[in-house]
Design goal:
Layout lengths: L1 H11 L6 E2 L4 E14 L3 E14 L4 E12 L4 E13 L2 E7 L3 H4 L10 H11 L2 H6 L8 E8 L2 E10 L5 E12 L2 E11 L5 E11 L3 E11 L3 E14 L2 E10 L5 E9 L4 E10 L4 E10 L1
Antiparallel strand pairs: 1-2, 2-3, 2-17, 3-4, 4-5, 5-6, 6-7, 7-8, 8-9, 9-10, 10-11, 11-12, 12-13, 13-14, 14-15, 15-16, 16-17
């Protein structure tokens, strides 16, 4: 896998950071190859998130994206999203297999520099819908609605996992922007066999010129209730180098601490790595190279 991905990253670096034509077609995303090392495991992972959207300037539009995490042990967690978008004066309606709003509109960055660790902690932080969809043959039908009024963005969605379990998931999001600060709240509710699952997240994210700060509180309800509290901070030492720190405090479990750095180049290539420590548990180190376009 490594022999194929590294040349692909180098080839992608020849493309501009984003592309858009006069017809309203836009394309962008990120791909990354990373290596993780801990006392109990060593693995390679490929992560990608590529999206395309088209707006006609009228009623009709289209959104499509693929997000995937592939591990060298054969684990393949891939989602395909594609939906027809209806743009009206009352907001946008997406019908088909739209990407969940809690995934699209969460202002908090991923946890740590490791895409794998971010994915493994998402069952506590969300979004649950995207994580569940990887078990649904990667394609989850549904519909979403989103609207912006001044500084307020809000919306909701319905998604149906048709992999045999027939799970229905409802989601709702709300954001309020005040200058460089975004206040947000989101909720997901899954109707499953046994105890239903719900996740509520509320927090704030401040995006300043050279530093970012964020905090989010999450409540996960299933057979038990679990609370988490996350703190995030990042500082641009220079335009190409960013240092960041993450803390995830988990009720009745071990907290996770992370420090990492990212060095980005003007052509979209980046190198990043860091270390994470599970309290009373192992240390996890990651290093990776990727391309953002």
């Amino acid at each position: 896998m490594t022999r194929l991905i590294v040349p692909a990253l180098l080839a992608l670096s020849a493309f501009p950071a984003a592309a858009q034509d006069s017809n309203g077609l836009s394309f962008g995303g990120e791909v990354k190859l990373e290596y993780l090392d801990s006392s109990s495991s060593h693995l390679w992972a490929f992560d990608g998130d590529v999206s395309m959207s088209w707006r006609s300037g009228g009623l009709l539009g289209f959104d499509a994206s693929v997000d995937t995490t592939y591990l060298d042990d054969g684990t393949d967690l891939t989602n395909y999203w594609a939906a027809l978008v209806l743009s009206t004066g009352a907001g946008e309606f997406a019908v088909g297999a739209p990407r969940p709003l809690v995934d699209r509109l969460d202002p908090m960055p991923g946890f740590s520099s490791s895409r794998v660790l971010d994915l493994e902690t998402s069952f506590l932080r969300g979004p649950l819908t995207s994580l569940a969809s990887t078990q649904d043959n990667g394609l989850t039908p549904g519909l979403t609605y989103v609207n912006t009024s001044g500084n307020l963005t809000y919306g909701g969605g319905y998604h149906h996992l048709n992999d045999g379990d027939n799970v229905d998931i409802l989601e709702g999001v709300m954001q309020y922007k005040s200058g460089a600060t975004t206040f947000f709240i989101s909720g997901e509710f899954a109707d499953v066999e046994g105890p239903n699952v719900s996740l509520l997240q509320i927090g704030a994210f401040h995006d300043a010129e050279r530093f970012d700060l964020g905090a989010a509180f999450t409540q996960l309800d299933s057979s038990d209730t679990t609370h988490t509290l996350r703190f995030y901070g990042a500082y641009d030492v220079m335009s190409s180098l960013t240092l960041r720190g993450d803390v995830l405090m988990i009720q009745d479990s071990d907290d996770i601490y992370s420090l990492s750095a990212t060095y980005g180049m003007e052509n979209g290539l980046f190198v990043e790595g860091g270390g994470s420590k599970i309290h009373n548990g192992p240390e996890i180190y990651d290093i990776g190279v990727g391309f953002k376009f």
